[in-house]
Amino acid sequence: MNIPDHIVIVPDGNRRWARKRGRPAFFGHYEGAKTAEKILSAALDLNIPCLTFWGCSAANVTERSPAEVKVLFAIFGRYFKKLLTSRAVRENRVRVDFLGRWPELFPANVQKVIRSVIKATKHYDRHRLTFLLAYDGRDEMIAAIRDIAAEERKKPKLAVTRDRVKRHLWTRNLPPVDLVIRTGGEPHWSAGLMMWDVAEARLHFTPTLWPAFTPAEFKRIVASYGATERRFGK
User: Fold this and answer.
1) pLDDT averaged over 10-residue windows placed end to end, the chain, 234 residues
2) Does residue 144 lie within any of the structural domains?
3) Is 12 a catalytic residue?
């Protein structure tokens, strides 16, 4: 089976899952974190080299209610602490990274945990696990354009190539995305998600709400990808 090198997951549907059960939104977020653990384990079973999770957009932490955002931060802090002692992360040599505006928008205690995870896993080289936190693809592109413009001022005849753009993206160390899986049944994009890296990606939208998404469904989607010929416009 043709295994994708890089899968991105947009885990949508936590709040709707909770509402259907008459529970508050934070209940869905807690269950969603449990699902993330299961899917990481399934990805390692399939030997997926790179897995990226959409954690939250910048708008998620600046425009939602303070109570919900507080719960999100608590969940992130708890989940990332578990990564520090995760046997699966250690034995599979999973390098964990975090992209987005979390250094300016996350509370200091969660930032501390994130930096500890980065430091503890920075020498691992078998798998990559990336979380997009307070992320917006438009912010990423603006940052890249500014960096290239600053470079061009020093080198007026600088050639702006695809490789140069990639080197200035937050995702510079990640390969192009092969497969995007969005749960929740709403086939739309989120805040310019990795707009450069998904140029040739296959998109899969499932109606399953994220807390109900299972490793079995994940593996079926990956198997479907593996059975499809990728022509890349040829």
Assistant:
1) 92 94 90 96 97 94 90 94 94 97 96 98 97 96 95 87 95 96 92 94 96 97 86 58
2) no
3) yes
